[in-house]
C-alpha cells in the first residue's frame, strides 16, 4: 500500500484541518500560509536596549497565532515543515540587511529543559533543522550552531512585563564554547518574539564573543507581535548599522512561494 493511499486513509479517520482557520484538507491552508510569507522587522513596543535586528516571517496575530501554538503546545508536528519554511524566509530576509553575504549559522534560542520535558520535544530545534534544509535547497550556505545553552531555572513569563521578563531571563544563557567559522553571520532563531526580552538576553551573551571574532549577530523568528515602535534606539529599524532593504521577490521566491504540501 503506497504512501498516498495511507495518507488518504489517515485523513478519513483523522481529517486534517488548517491550524489557522479550521478549513479542512491541509494542516495549513494556502491563505493562512501567505500570512507567513510577508517578512517584516520585529519592533517591540518597548524597544529593549540591545535588541538585535530581527525579521519575522509574519505577524503573531489572527490565524498565525493558533498555528504557532498548535505546533508548539498541541503537538501538531506536521506544522514543522511550513513553519520551518517561514523561519527560513525570515533568515533570508534579515540577511539582506547585511552588506556582505557570509555563510549563515542559525543559533536556536535554547528551550528550557522543563519545557522540553513537558512537550516531549524541542520545537525550536525542529524549526531550525527545517529552516537550514530550506535555505540550503535555495542555495544559501547555512548550518546550525548550538552556540548557546541554558543554565539555571526561570519562572513562567506569562503575565510578566517586558522589564520583568528581562530580569527573569538574566543569567539563563551561556556560551557553549564551540568554534564558529570566521566571518559567519550568526542568526538567533526562535518561534515568536513579543516583548523582545528573550532575544535581547540571548544576544547580550552571544554578541561580545561574536564581535571579538568579527561575526555579526541578527535574529529571525516565525512571527512577531505587531506593534507600533516607540522611538527605538538607532531609529525604527533598531541598531544604526543594520540597513533593512526591500525584500527582493527574485531572491526570496524559492522560500516564499505557497506550498502544495504540509
Your description of this structure?
- With 262 residues, this protein is α/β, with parallel strands linked by helices.
- 37% of the residues lie in helices and 15% in strands.
- The protein contains nine helices and eight strands.
- It has helices at 3-13, 30-34, 64-73, 80-95, 113-119, 123-137, 162-169, 197-212, 249-256; strands at residues 40-41, 54-59, 104-108, 142-144, 148-150, 173-175, 185-193, 216-224.
- Strands 1-2-8-7-3-4 form a six-stranded mixed sheet.
- Helix 4 packs across helix 6.
- The longest helix has 16 residues, at 80-95.
- The two termini are 21 Å apart.
Kindly report the spatial arrangement of strands forming the biggest sheet: 1-2-8-7-3-4
Mean pLDDT: 80
Shape: globular
Query: Can you give the helix content as a percent range?
Result: 25-40%
Q: What Rg, in angstroms, do the CA atoms define? A: 18 Å
Q: Gap between N and C termini, in Å? A: 21 Å
Uncertain runs with pLDDT below 50, 5 residues or more? 6-13, 229-237, 256-262
Q: What count of helical segments does DSSP give?
A: 9
Task: Count all strands and give the number.
Answer: 8
Task: Give the biggest beta sheet.
Answer: 6 strands, mixed
The sequence of SSEs as H and E is HHEEHHEHHEEHEEHEH
Structural class: alpha/beta
Beta content comes to 15-25%
